[in-house]
Amino acid sequence: MTNASPTPDQTVDVLIVGGGGAGLTASMLLTKLGVDHLLVSALPTTSTLPKAHVLNQRTMEILDDAGVAAAIAERSTPAANMAASAFYAGLAGPGDDYGRRIAKIECWGAGRDDENWRAASAWPQLNLPQIRLEPILKDHAEELAPGRIRFSHELTALEQDAEGVTATIRDLDAGSDYAVRCRYLIGADGGRTVPGLVGISHVGLGVVTQTATMHVSADFSQLAQDDDVLLRWLVSPQTGVSVVMVPMGPERWGRHSEEWVIHINYPADDPRAQSDEKVESDVRASLGIPGLPMEVHKITRWSVEAVMADRYSDGRVILAGDAAHRHPPTGGLGLTSGIQDVHNLTWKLAAVIHGQAGAQLLDTYEPERRPSLERNAQRSLENAVNHFGVITPSLGVSHEQTEEENIASFRRLWSGLPEDAEHRAAVLRAIRSQSMEFSEHNVEYGYTYASAAIVPDGSPAPESPDEIRVYQPSTRPGAPLPHAWIDDEDGVRRPIKDLVAPGRFLLIAGEEGEAWCAAARELAARDGIPLDAVRIGHIDGDLFDPRCTWLRHREIGADGAILVRPDRFVAWRSLGDDDDPAGALAEALSQVLARPVTAAVPA
Fold first, then answer.
1. From edge to edge, which strands make up the β-sheet containing 543-544?
2. Is 322 exposed, middle or buried (0-12, 13-18, 19+ CB in 10 A)?
3. What is the phi/psi pair of residue 230, to 5°?
4. Order of strands, edge to edge, in the sheet holding 229-235?
5. Which among 7, 6, 46, 42 has a CA at the least distance from the CA of 25?
6. Which helix (H) or strand (E) holds 130?
7. What is the spatial distance between Cα 588 and Cα 571, in angstroms, rounded to a whole number?
8. Phi and psi (nearest 5°) for 357?
9. What pLDDT was estimated at residue 146?
10. Quick check: 3 pLDDT over 60?
């Protein structure tokens, strides 16, 4: 570290560098938490690439915290148009075998029809392309913090000292520089600048393939099938290569979508991928649409790979989103991971800045997030490998074969001949296995934390019949707060997540847990801890559990208690009562907040 620069032009608690999904969500959450901040982005506007589009349930809950979920839901893909993913023998061609559906599988809650998704959260999985999502986030962030969201403002240098960071920002429109002094800096710039300025490097976890992506306007309604399909995986009889088609709306969805993203894969270093003309030619040939009218908006190239930062912070500079980790798109875990990063980070920054927690609380960010992110990156790679290394080869289709040979392989799937039955069963099994991507509910929603900000109770982790697909609610410390619908005495119903106010802890006691609630109120009043307390029971309590859902999930007795962090992860629990509830709760909060919390000494 070096000494800080001279007097800055502006001082804030937090400087956010980057105006994508992670940065804009961080801004909204910090505003809700009462933290003075500034966001700068070198880009002139939000993303022009229709990249990430899947918003899983956990992410929608966070965006609900930010106050923007309802606006996103209004623009999102209708549930009926995102219930499934399907695999096809290309798109179009000279016979009925071309474009024929091989198999269809449910995806991401089956258009809100899967009871497991409905039971997990008040929010469904949604789908909105990044080019339409980020403007909504930006508008809302600007509404919450006027004048604090600055695009075309580029971070060019930073210096740290023991008290904070001084950043040099260039106003690209005005051509002038200014200095911002902050206590902490969030690097959410996709890794373009911040990691390099503080010496953080990235390690690749593997490259699966190279991909070229076309964003087009075209009418595929007479060629595509299945309005309930969100992702179309096409293996071309003409060329033997895989092509993925994703509808982009904005007003119509399913096969009637006005815009589409089309991904075509190439071997590494294939020169064809670098030519726009050849990419378009290859897409047209693979889809069998040589003369279909198609307006190409943009063609981009990228590697299907996973990359992880060697560390997530340096002093007072903390990375989030793509600056810390980049994933293949398979599974839709990239953007969602970044939003989950800042959900974990912002309440901790607020607690430290407001003097409610010791600075060591921030040291729990990487231990909590890295295991989940490494798992997400690995899962994304495995999803991609299963597509390209298992499903496609099982079809017996290849770019090395002729079109006639590829069609002959496809026909074995629907020939009905006894000698083809084993082949068909193997292909359908391979496709069913891709539920590892489209139904990875435990990966998306059931991830857990372990750090100094979690107080273990010695209980074993619950066993799951499938660690990828099956989310099992639990209140074991480190687990996300299970979902349940809760009523007040007037019958007004809300999801239990809404009981956790921004930046505040919540003690949930059983219906006989008056002593725990009294202890929580005592500690909150005497120590200034942002802590609320409530008893929830089916018949008795402050609030009520009308369907006994909470009773099934809470894993504590009627006289027990659970301490929930502001990010709605369980920090601590007591299965029953305690001789000294205030002392037990103070001890737990001391560990979580990384500072002494002392219960009153009995007279």
1. 493-495, 485-487, 543-544, 531-537, 505-509, 561-564, 570-574
2. buried
3. -90, -50
4. 101-106, 84-88, 229-235, 242-249, 259-266, 202-218, 294-309, 325-326
5. 46
6. helix 130-144
7. 8
8. -140, 155
9. 97
10. no
What's the number of CA atoms in the CB half-sphere (13 Å) around residue 313? 17
For the whole prediction, is pTM greater than 0.85?
Answer: yes
- Tokens describing residue 299: 């063609």
Per residue in 261-302, pLDDT (tens digit) is 999 988 777 888 889 999 999 999 999 999 999 999 999 887
Average pLDDT value for residue range 182-207: 91
Q: Which candidate, 337, 37, 42, places its Cα nearest to that of 186?
A: 37
Per-residue pLDDT of 311-337, as tens digits, reads 999 999 999 999 999 887 777 788 899
d(CA 181, CA 163): 10
User: Tens of pLDDT along 466-496?
Assistant: 999 999 999 999 999 999 999 999 999 999 9
Residue type, 551: L
Closest listed residue to residue 320, CA positions, set 347, 339, 348: 339
In whole angstroms, give the CA distance from residue 284 to residue 276.
12
Q: Which residue has the tokens 């959410």?
A: 188
Q: How far apart are CA 576 and CA 343, in angstroms?
A: 30
Cα angle 540-554-115, degrees, rounded to a multiple of 5:
105
Residue whose entry in the numeric block shows the structure tokens 């502006």: 10
Per-residue pLDDT reduced to its tens digit, 404-453: 999 999 999 999 999 999 999 999 999 999 999 999 999 999 999 999 99
Contact 504, 531 (CB under 8 A): yes
Identify any residues that bridge with 169 across adjacent strands, giving them in sequence order.
155, 178
Total Cβ atoms within 10 A of residue 402: 12
